[in-house]
Amino acid sequence: METIAVLTSGGDAPGMNAAIRAVVKVCAARGIRVLGVEGGYEGLIDGKMTPLTRPTRKGFVPTRAVQDHGNTGGTFLGSARSKRFMTPEGRAEAEQTLRGFGVGGLVVIGGNGSLTGARYLSEETGFPTVGIPATIDNDVGCTASAIGVDTALNTIVEACDRISDTAAAFKRAFIVEVMGRHSGYLATTAAVATAADAVLLPSHDRSADEVVETTSALIRAAFAADRDKSRVLIMKAEGMDVPASLLARRLEEALEDTEIDVRATVLGHVQRGGAPSSFDRMIAGRMGLIAVEALLAGQSGVGVVWQATVEGGNETSDPQLRTFSLADILAETEAMNDGTSPVVEWRKQRMEAIQGVLAL
Ligand code: F6P
């Protein structure tokens, strides 16, 4: 294989640039040219390619852009959510573009939507394609972590520590809404890390009235005279569909016989930015290497996973990484979304087991 292309697609995640860097360095070391696709699958269809390796007398070296951005957040190649690539015609055009540029294999870095695109490109056109999971939501099947999750969690923890400082000054209750689409992973994990008092998850499927009733009772109990609480923190997943500001207002109404103030903070896109943590850089580097090795070994339609959460897949040269077919990864994603995955069941049981502990 003489040329490999790499693209980032969907929501950006800190560590995407480190994954690009890894792909480029591994390829350069093996005498393979790398082209970066600008703007995700949209750019792929339109042939927006930029060289990420520079030829020297001895072979290839990474370009300046690769070196400069490896430790930064976002994606220097740009991203997009492409409607055209969702159609077989769009994918056929993309394949033609890749072949026209002499590309022999493609590495796709992104979340479920991006990996679905990679799967169909590989299945429909036979173009050698390997996926690397990168999304702060941690909702990609089969992998214990996607690139970006750890950095987002660190950002949430830092923000909650700051919120706790001001909350404690006034003995206030705060609703903190975190990202994660339909997944409650960031909310549950951050709740444990920040010693939140409760978590409001998408899967709870309760009415707004029920949430207000139980949460106001929890806040009331937390600030009771026999307790020594300085603040109450309620971690809310964005997929739990009562808006944080509405919830705060309704809680204040339910607590109007007390002096308790309730405030809401929606952390939003702050969680997506920032320099990647050492963990995200580390898994990005290792996933990048395995993705290139998979392409060179003739694999296609597979994704690289970190510490597989399910049995199966293929061994790689890294004991912590396996490759799974993208079809299997996406089937597991589906099972996580509809709650039938044992992984979700386990997480749910853990959360139920600690609900009483969180409130202490
Ligand atoms: O998938 C990553 C994510 O940040 C989700 O957590 C969030 O729901 C969504 O993307 C936000 O998308 P956008 O950046 O298009 O508003």
Structural class: alpha/beta
Work out the strand percent.
15-25%
Number of strands: 14
| The level-1 CATH class of the largest domain | Alpha Beta
**Strand order, largest beta sheet:** 3-2-1-6-7-12-14-13
Chain-averaged pLDDT = 96
What summary fits the major beta sheet? 8 strands, mixed
Task: Please name the CATH architecture of the largest domain.
Answer: 3-Layer(aba) Sandwich
Cofactors, ions, other ligands: 6-O-phosphono-beta-D-fructofuranose
Distance between the termini: 58 Å
Indicate the percent of residues in helices: 40-55%
Unreliable stretches (pLDDT < 50, length at least 5) are none
Computed CA radius of gyration, to the nearest angstrom = 22 Å
Which fold name fills CATH's third level, the topology of the largest domain? Rossmann fold
Task: Compute the number of helices.
Answer: 12
Number of domains: 2
Order of helices and strands: EHEHEEEHHEHEHEHEHEHEHEEEHH
- Give the overall shape, derived from the CA principal axes: elongated
Short description:
The protein has 360 residues and is of the alpha/beta class. The protein is built from twelve helices and 14 strands. It has two domains: 3-148 and 276-338, Rossmann fold; 150-273, Rossmann fold.
